[in-house]
Amino acid sequence: MAAQGPVPAALIQAPVRVEVVTIGQSVLPADAFRITADLTVDADDQAAADALMVKTRARLEGTAAALGGHESPRPAGWHKLDTSDPDMSSGAPFNQMPPPAIEGLVVVRETAQSNARLSFDAPDLPSALRIIAALKAAGLRQVTRPVPLLLDDRIGFADAREDVLRAAQGKAQAYARTLGLHVVALREIHEAPEVNISRMLEQPSLFVDAKFPDKVITRVQIAAEYEIAP
Fold first, then answer.
1. DSSP-derived pairing of the beta strands 215-229 and 16-29
2. 172 secondary structure, DSSP code
3. Which residue among 62, 77, 163, 178 is least packed, with the fewest CB closer than 10 Å?
């Protein structure tokens, strides 16, 4: 099919405003890798379960440290022994219902449970994989794959915004050429809300891509309005 030429000038009422929607991204080496896992411990009563949780947690933190990792940063003012730990919960004792009065019935002993979500940061991917193996060997459940992180995500955003503006400008220029016009002004930019997986990590616009296991992909989407004229 032959390429279409410019739109006839008689059909154009310049200046024309065009809005383009574009996504830009940056791909940067990760500064750290985050792993999370669920830990559950049982004991005879709640006090014993909570004490065992503190002891087990400290042991696992030591294991991670020996492999080059450390506990992920916590909110300001938080202390690991504080019962307000947002990642730690205590379970009510099992078998709380009074046993029925049946002769010869074997009553299961009550137990209490304490649960915690552990989070560790490793400086590189090999260290993260070793920590994951150690956590799984210790019996922890739902151990995540390592998530690449930037210590300062402003760098990723800056690069992604440069990329998205170049892409938006290119689209606007393509419309201008088709109309036989030129881009004369950028009138407005609206950036889309950052809603994705990284909100759970308090690291906006982070994407985990299997093709880049040791990279942080930051994406930004904008709607930009340009004015094009002769």
1. antiparallel
2. H
3. 77
* Calpha distance 159→46 (Å, rounded): 50
CA pair distance 217, 230, nearest whole angstrom: 39
Strand partners, 118: 37
Euclidean distance between CA atoms 76 and 183, whole angstroms: 48
Q: pLDDT (tens digit, 9 = 90+) per residue, 124-173? A: 999 999 999 999 999 998 898 898 888 888 888 899 999 999 999 999 99
Residues in the chain: 230
Cα angle value 70/71/76 (rounded, 5°): 130
Q: At residue 67, what are phi and psi to the nearest 5 degrees?
A: -100, 10
Q: How confident is the model at residue 183 (pLDDT cuts 50, 70, 90)?
A: very high
**70 forms bridges with which residues in the sheet?**
121
pLDDT tens profile 63-119: 999 999 999 886 554 444 444 444 555 554 444 444 455 555 555 556 788 999 999
**Per residue in 4-29, pLDDT tens?**
555 555 556 778 899 999 999 888 89
Six-digit token string for 177? 């050429």
Amino acid of residue 89: S
Q: Each residue of 57-70: pLDDT tens digit?
A: 999 999 999 999 99
